[in-house]
Amino acid sequence: MITCNxxxxxxxxxxxxxxxxxxxxxxWKNGEELEIVKKQILRQFRIxxxxxxxxxxxxxxxxxxxxxxxxxxxxGSEVIVQAFTCEAVILPILACGLKPVYVDIETKSFSINPIxxxxxxxxxxxxxxLQYSFSITPVYKDEILSLVSKxxxxxxxxxxxxxxxxxxxNFKFQISNSIFLMSFGRSKAxxxxxxxxxxxxxxxxxxxxxNSQASLSMPSWLFIFRLLLYKSVSMLIKSTYDxxxxxxxxxxINTFHLIIPEITNNEKGGEFDQTLNKxxxxxxxxxxxxQLNKYERMQKNRAQITAFYNKNYKLQxxxxxxIxxxxxxxxxxxxxxxxxxxxxxDLILQKAAKNNIFLGKWYxxxxxxxxxxxxxxxxxxxxxxxxxxxxxxxxxxxxxINRQEAEKVINILNDV
Length: 416
Description:
With 416 residues, this protein is an alpha/beta fold. 42% of the residues lie in helices and 12% in strands.
């Protein structure tokens, strides 16, 4: 089983750490790992020399909700976001009584187009969320930051998809009061199944977040237990999927709802789920520490697979009529997923799935998932045409796989 979507980061060592924790409930809610993981994140983030603080939350959307709530912005204030995004970014904005303003994207890094941004900034704009799609640093970041400074907007840099250490070290923190949004969800670059964080040196925000976070309660014992099941069960499924056993286990897990879904029914219905607005438990910090300790190795592997796709994209895939022409070219950085635009997406996905290769569709509509009612999240069809077109054509290739598996992915693309 090769997949972008189902436990892309998990290996047997992760499953073993999680399995042992099932029998150590005294470590689930509180423990020293909560502080250790904050220091480790700062080391990985290479900002240990700055006055940064890390605030941990059960989910990335809870982190975003808390920071927006703590700003005490007037109702109806505008938060600028790109139209190529997901519900986890938009629902916290709406839950705070704020208005998302959607900006179209460019096709070099799938981030905000500064030309469209300039057109859509109004006097009601108070903040801008800059998304690093697939962990690619926005190609027009300097132009965007210039507009942010000009209009005195609060900037939240959304690095939930991950980031390149090489890029991070070159940031030089162009905004003096920096705010970074992180996610440790199961489909992100480092996974504790659920989890999110805010990293900031904004003293006003630090004060507000300190007060807000103190009021968050821990998730229930049962909730944590179900999260800890995920890594062990997912590895069992992945390792036996080609033998049919994994498919049976997966069916049983879904039938009896043993695993907490990544997106809840409330969120699919367009509502921010307050049940996920909780504190980050120590058990997840232990899982995250284990992944952080091997983060450099995972990133090196992602960079190698990205380089492999880059080479084969130029030499092989461009000869395939299914591939659209577009501007995207990326250096050999460690991408969370490798994006491609195709003209026959459904055919490619179906053929890959028959070979137990499950490619991604981030994103199959503006403000994904596709089941989400766009009117409910305030998106007007036709307002961001580039993003809409890309959502009809994009597929994602997995990067946290080995060379042999990457060759299988390329072969599928070339056979369609």
